[in-house]
Design goal:
Blueprint: H1 15-25, H2 29-45, H3 49-76, H4 97-103, H5 107-110, E1 114-118, H6 125-138, E2 143-147, H7 148-160, H8 164-173, E3 176-182, H9 189-202, E4 207-212, H10 220-223, H11 226-236, E5 240-244, H12 250-262, E6 269-272, E7 278-281
Parallel strand pairs: 1-4, 1-5, 2-3, 3-4
Antiparallel strand pairs: 6-7
Helix pairs in contact: 2-3, 3-6, 7-8, 7-9, 9-11
Length: 282
């Protein structure tokens, strides 16, 4: 059989190229990146094929979980990443450390319970909220972080643009909604009702974490209505963990330490001279 000049010649495609294409189509980037290296290690260890595949699968799964955690952290929109490892529990003796560590296991999220952190400004409420949010991301839970003022603004903007239902649906789907700094800014009647609707829709359907600088009996000053505030607290506190943080402000304590270091200290040593007079050395 003779081939005409117009007949295309078939060239053998290297198996590495085919394998790379298949792994890309199957979305196995770690397989594609590591299979040659793991093959050499398996050959040196005289590992059989199942062990070779097991090593690749383990690497792929670890890398995939890492990427998923990073994706959930980005989706949460944390202003910064905080963990419990960097929180000074000794500086906040009123905080129940055992409860915080229990919450970090994230079982409360599966049970659709709530958490409210109460305390003056600067006592670490946001740090705890961010750390629990990070723990949730690491436990394969979806998280959304926002301040109360930003959330109300976003809700009112979405209402004006006729996309409120879309935003509400998103807020309802996340497993953990963190609403920080409730109490710093009072809301209008419309804003209060919109925020109440978010909490109400999540009642026993999702977990909500709220931080506030106000005790419960002062929340009416934020929402402007005793009736609405009562209904809101009734829902938030039905299945709730309360974190009380009444210690000194971290920022104030840091500022005091900085000022003390900046002030020139006088190291006065008083010595008596042989004549009975005192001299001062600086």
């Amino acid at each position: 059989m003779t081939m005409s000049p117009d007949t295309p010649t078939l060239t053998a495609v290297p198996p590495q190229v085919l394998l790379g294409n298949h792994l890309k189509a199957l979305k196995l980037p770690t397989f594609a990146r590591e299979y040659e290296k793991v093959a050499m290690e398996a050959a040196q260890d005289r590992a059989d094929y199942p062990r070779y595949l097991l090593r690749l699968c383990e690497l792929e799964r670890i890398d995939r979980e890492r990427r998923n955690i990073e994706r959930r952290i980005r989706a949460a929109r944390f202003p910064q990443t905080k963990s419990l490892d960097t929180f000074d529990f000794a500086a906040q003796p009123s905080l129940n450390k055992a409860l915080v560590l229990e919450l970090a296991r994230c079982e409360w999220i599966e049970k659709r319970q709530n958490c409210i952190a109460l305390g003056p400004s600067g006592t670490g409420k946001t740090h705890i909220a961010l750390a629990l949010g990070l723990a949730a991301c690491q436990k394969n839970q979806s998280v959304a972080f926002t301040t109360a003022a930003a959330l109300v603004h976003e809700l009112m903007e979405a209402r004006d643009e006729r996309r409120l239902r879309v935003l509400q649906k998103h807020l309802n789907t996340v497993k953990l909604l963190i609403v920080d700094e409730l109490g710093y800014v009072p809301f209008t009647a419309v804003g209060s009702e919109l925020l109440f609707e978010v909490f109400s829709q999540r009642y026993e359907r999702g977990t909500t974490l709220v931080t506030s600088n106000l005790p419960f009996d002062e929340w009416t000053s934020v929402f402007g209505s005793e009736r609405l505030t009562g209904a809101l607290l009734d829902r938030l506190t039905h299945h709730v963990h309360i974190l009380e943080m009444n210690g000194e402000s971290f920022r104030l304590a840091t500022s005091k330490r900085t000022q003390r270091r900046a002030s020139p200290g006088l190291n006065t040593i008083t010595k008596k001279t042989t004549e009975g007079a005192n001299t001062t050395e600086i």
